[in-house]
Design goal:
- Helix content is 23%, strand content 41%.
- The protein has an eight-stranded mixed beta sheet.
- It starts with a strand and ends with a strand.
Length: 135
């Protein structure tokens, strides 16, 4: 598994518009886009910070993001590492004894293919592997 870079970092927020305003005014980041992901039960706002995406996530329906927000409050949600080949990275993680939280990768915005690793084996953090489609 070759990690290319930190692809994106997600933060849970209760009010997406207020959080966007804060990130723009405080950090000088420029909003790239907003998305609704009904299958994940979230709305997102995305900023580019160098080579890394900063993603603000507002849960709007029941699911893991909503449960995490209710349990832990606003703040860090997950870090996603870009890998060359997702299946090879998943195989390596499983061989190291780190299971995924789901059996199959899912496809996110812009065709990002992602899968989450079991947090209990990753120091309590939700770590995600991400493959970005190549042109």
């Amino acid at each position: 598994m070759n990690i290319r870079r930190v692809h994106h970092i997600n933060f849970l927020v209760r009010d997406l518009e207020a959080a966007v305003s804060s990130y723009e005014q405080t950090l000088g980041l420029r909003l790239d886009r907003m998305d609704e992901l009904p299958d994940r039960g979230v709305r997102t706002a995305r900023f580019r910070a160098g080579e890394t995406w900063i993603v603000l996530v507002q849960p709007v329906a029941d699911g893991e993001p909503m449960r995490t927000l209710e349990r832990n409050g606003e703040g860090f949600f997950l870090i996603s590492y870009e890998v060359d080949v997702l299946e090879a990275a998943v195989d390596r993680a499983r061989q190291a004894g780190v299971p995924t939280t789901s059996g199959q990768p899912r496809t996110g915005v812009d065709g990002w293919r992602v899968i989450d690793l079991e947090p209990g084996r990753m120091g309590g953090a939700l770590v995600q592997l991400c493959e970005v489609p190549r042109p």
